[in-house]
Amino acid sequence: MSFPKDFLWGGAVAANQSEGAYNVDGKGLSSADMLPAAKHGVARTATDKIEKDLFYPYQEAIDFYHHYKEDIKLFAEMGFKSFRTSINWTRIFPTGMEETPNEAGLQFYEDLFSECKKYNIEPIVTLSHYDTPYYLVEHYNGWAGRELVDLFAKYSETVFSRYKNLVKYWLTFNEINCMGILPYVAGGVKHSNKQIQAQAAHHQFVASAKAVKIGHEINPDFQIGMMLADLLTYPYSCNPNDVLESLHKTHDYYFYSDVQCRGYYPSYQLKKYEKENIKIVMEPEDEKILLEGKVDFLALSYYMSITAAADKTVGEVADGGNLMDRGLKNPYLESNDWGWQIDPVGLRISLNYLYDRYQIPLMIVENGLGAYDKIEEDGSIQDDYRINYLTQHITEMEKAINEDGVDLIAYTPWGCIDIVSAGTGEMEKRYGFIYVDRNNIGEGTLKRMKKKSFDWYKNVIQNNGL
Question: Which spans of this chain does the record mark as coiled coil (predicted)?
Answer without folding.
Answer: none
